[in-house]
Amino acid sequence: MKRIMITGLGTVNALGLDVPSYWEAVRSGRSAIMPIEGFDTSPFASRLGAEVKGFDPSVSFDPMKLRRMDRLSQMVLTASAEALTDAGLRGGAVSPERMGIVIGNGYGGTSCTEEFFAGLLMRGPSGVNPMLFPTTVPNSAASLTSIELKIKGPNSTFCQKDVSAEEAFIYACGLLDKGAADVMIAGGGEELNPVIYHAFTALGILSHGKGKGVEGCFPFDRRRNGRVLGEGAAVLVLETLESATNRGAKVYGEIAGYAMTGGTGSVSSYRLDTGPMKRAMDTALTRAGLGTDGVSYISAAANSTRDLDACETAAVKELFGGRAGSVPISSIRPMTGDFEGMGGLRLLTSALSITHGYIPPTLNYSEAEPGMDLDYVPGKGRECTVDAVLHNGFASGGACTCIVMKK
Amino acid sequence: MCAERKVAVVGVGVVSALGPSSKEFWEGLVSGRCGIEAVDLFDTSAYRTHIGAQVKGFDPFAHFGKKELRRMSRCDLFGILAAREAMADSGLSLGPDDLERSGVLLGGGAGGMLSGEQYRRDLYEKKIKPRASLLIPFSPSVTTDYIAIEFGLTGPRATVVTACSSSATSIGYAADWIRRGDADVVITGGSDAMCELTYSGFNSLRAVDDRPCRPFDMERKGLSLGEGAGILVLEEMGRARARGAKVYAELAGYGIAGDAYHMTAPEADGGGAARTILAALGDAGATPEDVDYINAHGTATRFNDAAETAAIKKVFGQRAYDIPVSSIKSMIGHCLGAAGGLEAAATVLSVYHGMIPPTINYANNDPQCDLDCTPNTARRKDIRLAISNSLAFGGNNTTIAVRKAV
């Protein structure tokens, strides 16, 4: 197995339009969740979201080219450019053929798809805008970014709901391991728009204020009743140890192990078996050469749904046994909002946690539920040494991933 | 990577315009039957073209319950049916420990978009409250989950969505799971269904021929859309041999590389595609000398076929003229997210039977596409190694390499 290093970070999200401003917002415990302004939520039972505001990619990129890009692609491109700059790779230190990109997003540039459909529905086949069609494919973000940044190595896109970005990340690690590239940009993103919002409300996935419900993002909390959507993009530059060493790159952390498993419940439910979750964590730790006692922090998959948060808690308790209560586990979703390809942002956050020795809190956590008694890092983050992060990614439908990142 | 773990193809399942089974698929291909006919899945009267390789004459109710069908997309149906055929074909019976070592890795495309379109039409045109269950197949990963659940597979699971190269990448990556030891058995390939998004999109780009598509022909005017599923069951070679399984071929390797050139047009000199083919050969431990058949992407657009021809010449030099090339899209259309899976199935069956399916609808030579495109008639040939190209929107290129099992 080749050793794989993290050498660059980039993000655009509701808390910050680049890595420094994002990290500062995390450290100050801010939340970007508020009533949505970008579109009318009055037809829906939910109104909250975490929108990216003030994002202007034309500062860095040709406005003519941006016109042909969906919002997700613009965010992924901007985050990728930041990450490459951060890694010191904008100047051609690695040849374009040895550099690749893999992005995970649940649905892609859905606003362009919807605009395309609007033409079809209102004016018929002659009313569609051909310029929009190429951006209706979910791989538009990875592809447009590769075109703009001249990345000629492996290029791919994963769509597996909540773990889209984790799957992209694991694929990128595999490509580096087999020598298909020396550097991979890996991560994910999603855009928030009325279509996705509508679909998720119709499917009953979002938090709401119906009945006695309190709308909000409350991972692990008794009051949780669904997800609160956000948007953004985040990528990490992954690089073989050899390549990073040869060019004297700065290193944020190392990818020590990863694993994928699957549950076999229902295609649309977050009620997952603890078995596959536990096996994903266990296998990733074994591959990382760590026991449960080597884990400093668990980046939780929990998404404020009744089922997933309870299942994850149970799986952690089963695997960690008596130690479970002493390992901090938290979710950044109450700060950033929640989106399908946000594994990238969570992994980026873990890289910063390791670098700066800071565990982000689970904001909004205050009311415990019987049986859910882990250390959820309520309310306030913690300064402490972070040697190894266990990153859980679990999706509705059953796909389970776990990634271990270490100092 | 453990060089000693090789990958066997032990099961093939297909749903295509040639019929809902791999037998009908293969018989149709070698007899040069064209599955591209009038489309009746939706109203095409307002479109420039009215044809496509639609899957016809199969009854979903013969395979699924009414309640199940309300939640499934057409893409899910195709995928599950093809997976059932492939698993039955493989003769595998998986015990509890095996299930943890068995995964699903599919390529997707428009997926449940047809259901999504009905949802939108109900909402905006008919002004009625649409069924929320129409949105369940909204994610392309749902087909993957259905198949894992059907067979109880709790190993690794993933879904690749890179337009026309999705399922080729998924098959290559699935082989890596087995080679690396992440899994012993993987159900892989892809499924996709026609819908108005892609039909209107390709029509608006004027990339669709009004006659059944004519790959590599001087008169070619674009692609014909298709749909279906092509599923392979991959198994670690030693395990397959030990249980006496029928091994169709060895999935020897794959290559993946980006053009980084243009969203819809390929690099004219085929540079990206050539690098992809070379990467696949390298991954398979093979050289250009070993290749006896090229299953082309061959969409029948002016640009693709010329660029793909240029790429093949770049890799194979003078020998390019001696290698039969063919595009089965002339018979099953361009099945987008499923194309790589269907073409991988065809390539595997070609290697197994020693038979090369033709490029049909071929009449006029194009000096820009002057390779041997196996015009109109299938050809018997012993194939040591075959490659299958998938070149997608966004310059996402994948080539897989299939070796004759020894």
Provide a descriptive summary of the structure in words.
The complex is a heterodimer of chains A (407) and B (406). Chain A has two domains: 4-246, Thiolase/Chalcone synthase (Peroxisomal Thiolase, Chain A, domain 1); 258-406, 3-Layer(aba) Sandwich (Peroxisomal Thiolase, Chain A, domain 1). Helices cover 32% and strands 18% of the residues of chain A. Chain A is built from twelve helices and 14 strands. Chain A has helices at residues 19-27, 63-66, 71-87, 110-123, 140-149, 164-177, 194-202, 241-246, 274-287, 306-320, 333-336, 343-356; strands at 4-13, 34-35, 48-49, 99-104, 155-158, 183-190, 232-240, 253-262, 297-299, 329-330, 358-359, 382-383, 388-394, 399-406. In chain A, the strands form three sheets. Chain A has a ten-stranded mixed β-sheet, sandwiched between helices. In chain A, strands 2-3 form a two-stranded antiparallel ribbon. Helix content of chain B is 34%, strand content 19%. Chain B is built from 13 helices and 14 strands. The chains are: A alpha/beta (407), B alpha/beta (406). At the A-B interface, helix 4, helix 5, strand 5, helix 6 and strand 8 of A face helix 5, helix 6, strand 5, helix 7 and helix 8 of B.
Q: Compute the number of structural domains of chain B.
A: 1
User: What fraction strand of chain A?
Assistant: 15-25%
CATH class of chain B, named Alpha Beta
Low-confidence stretches of chain A: none
User: pLDDT average of chain A, as an integer?
Assistant: 96
Number of helices of chain B: 13
CATH superfamily of the largest domain in chain A: Thiolase/Chalcone synthase
Q: Strand order, biggest sheet of chain B?
A: 5-4-6-7-1-8-14-13-9-10
CA gyration radius of chain B, whole angstroms: 20 Å
Strand order in the largest sheet of chain A: 5-4-6-7-1-8-14-13-9-10
Work out the number of β strands of chain A. Answer: 14
Compressed to H and E, one letter per element, the order of chain A equals EHEEHHEHHEHEHEHEHEHEHHEEEE
What's the SSE pattern of chain B?
Answer: EHEEHHHEHHEHEHEHEHEHEHHEEEE
Write down the overall geometry of chain A: globular
Shape of chain B: globular
